[in-house]
Amino acid sequence: MGRARKVIETLVAAGFNVTHSDADAVWVRDPFPLMDSLEADIVSSQGTIQPPSCHAVWGHVLCYGFIQFRSTPASLTLLREFAELAEGEGKFSDQISLNERLLSLEMEWTVKEPYGLNFREKDFFCSAEPIFGSAESEDLGRISVAILPHAQVQRLPNDVEEKTDAYVRHPLSQKNAEDIETVLRDQDCWFIERRDRPATERTSDEKLEAHPV
């Protein structure tokens, strides 16, 4: 993730707001109006319990798989700081490094009407409203974070939230292509056919879908 992080940092420094979205974060509706309505240096989706150090203190975590860094001094400084943290400690998870850097800032969070979802026998707290956090430090000044409602960027399938509430669906899976495809198909989030199927076995619509003009 180091190269991707550097690209994000370069674009933010050039004045662009940058949205990072994992390939398996499936957009079912346009999420930009949702994000644009929030005032924050960073707008993030919600994770489950990783890293445990942050979950233990906050009861929730940021998910790096769908996140927007605004072109603000605080956002840019934070990008550079947690990049140094990841490289200096040999960590390969941007999600861990980002959350732990925010934890070190003693972020204060506002969670309205929280409800719990369970993952690996641990609860994490969600809200129907965005979760807002802020902190101040000598290096960053004031930094603000908005975490989108889990129902709107769904990470963990559950019986509490409606699928129709989602703007992005990002179901948990193992980090390999086969399992990701299986999970996305099971969650009705797979909209393309495999490209390794012989072209003679595809319909004209499938060919167009695989190689759009």
From TrEMBL:
Record Pfam families: Nucleotid_trans
Single annotated GO MF: glycosyltransferase activity
InterPro entries documented for this protein: Nucl-diP-sugar_transferase, UDP-D-xylose:L-fucose_XylT
Domain of life: Bacteria
UniProt keyword list: Transferase
Chain ranges of the Nucleotide-diphospho-sugar transferase domain: 6-156
Protein's UniProt keywords contain Transferase: yes
Name of this protein: Nucleotide-diphospho-sugar transferase
Gene source species: Methyloligella halotolerans
